[in-house]
Amino acid sequence: MSPTKPCIPIPPPLMMSEEGSFAHQTLTQRWVTIIERAIASNNYPASITQNLENLRQELPYGIVRSLEDETQPDLEAWNTYMSPYQGKRWIDIPWYPAEVYLYRRILEATHYFQPGKWHRVDPFEPQKHSSLAKVMSAIETMSGKINTFVDAQGKWNRIDLIALFYFALWGNRIDLSLFPTDAGESQRMNIEAYREQANLLVDHTPQIADHIAHLKGVRIDLIVDNAGFELFCDLCVADFFVNSGIAQPVYLHLKPHPVLVSDAMIKDVDHTINVLCHHSHQDVQSLGKRLKNHIDNGNIICCEDSYWTAPLAFWDMPESWRSELNQSQLVMIKGDANYRRLLGDRQWDYTTPWEDIVCYFPAPFAALRTFKAEVAAGLKPAQIKRLNQDDPQWLTNGQWGVIQFFNPRQ
């Protein structure tokens, strides 16, 4: 029987009380900016603006309170999640549960679940749409390449597959919780840079390609991270798997409501494909229409579940989700937040063997992550020493990445 926890002792969680840490900076600076940006980018009435201001003023030393609107669908679940932290200050609770709960409190403040004008209105949607619009030149270039990766007979080559994984990894550099929409994304979208390996600290793409080479007509799952350019890259990966006949179907696992500013929901997929289908560039249009057909034909299935917005480590996933993912022949886990959940957002030594932590996962998986938090595993001591000297912010600036693979069935 496969393990359901890491195979080694689990260290303490990352805490926001550690001064000088990125978690502490997030609590004292980044979250304040995120709330202010949500106010600035939406035409909220005074009552909602005041709700958000009240939330902002709780940080970092206010007491964490429960959700107050009893009509909210996940009230009972969140009461359970946050019960260990009742009566504690924001600064005194672990980073990941606090972070996810902050965004849930933003939805409460903006009346996201209440009937009326603001029902199901994404407070981060203007930022998501602006971010996508700013990278259309990169999308044009990439669409032309993607349209050639699989020929009419469904043939493909290993080099293009590996390049596609690099595209999908570095698309995660754009994260609206770190970079606002006016931060010059287009300047970072040199398409050839996505084949660059210099900043890739672990590269298991050969093992992933070997695994995929034997697959035909199987189920593949993508646990999606950000909307915008990263979601476009993920859709390109799904398109490749379907066109090549490797996958039938591809499941896209998306968030059921807004969280972490730029995390993707089903409506973000719909918006992205609609933008592609109505773009003036022929290659972009062709890709968009193909993606729409994949969804209409059931070859790409978009689904959502509250588990993806829960403050739980992946080793705490419900048995129903272990059984679900066990049906997959490959799970692609995208982005920094999902990587943090893989490692439980814990204080692992960065050289801890990767497989000793993730041995619990129920299916073969690839984690594609650019570093935006002080959590890592599977690195070499010499790498860490060099990075600490050359780029002291390497763990959090989004410029370094890993592609790590593990197959529990081998």
UniProtKB/TrEMBL annotation:
It catalyses: beta-D-fructose 6-phosphate = dihydroxyacetone + D-glyceraldehyde 3-phosphate; beta-D-fructose 1-phosphate + H2O = D-fructose + phosphate. SUPFAM superfamilies: AF1104-like. It comes from the Bacteria. Residues 26-383 form the Damage-control phosphatase ARMT1-like metal-binding domain. Keywords: Hydrolase, Manganese, Metal-binding. Its cofactor is Mn(2+). Belongs to the damage-control phosphatase family. Sugar phosphate phosphatase III subfamily. This is Damage-control phosphatase ARMT1-like metal-binding domain-containing protein. It comes from Coleofasciculus chthonoplastes PCC 7420.
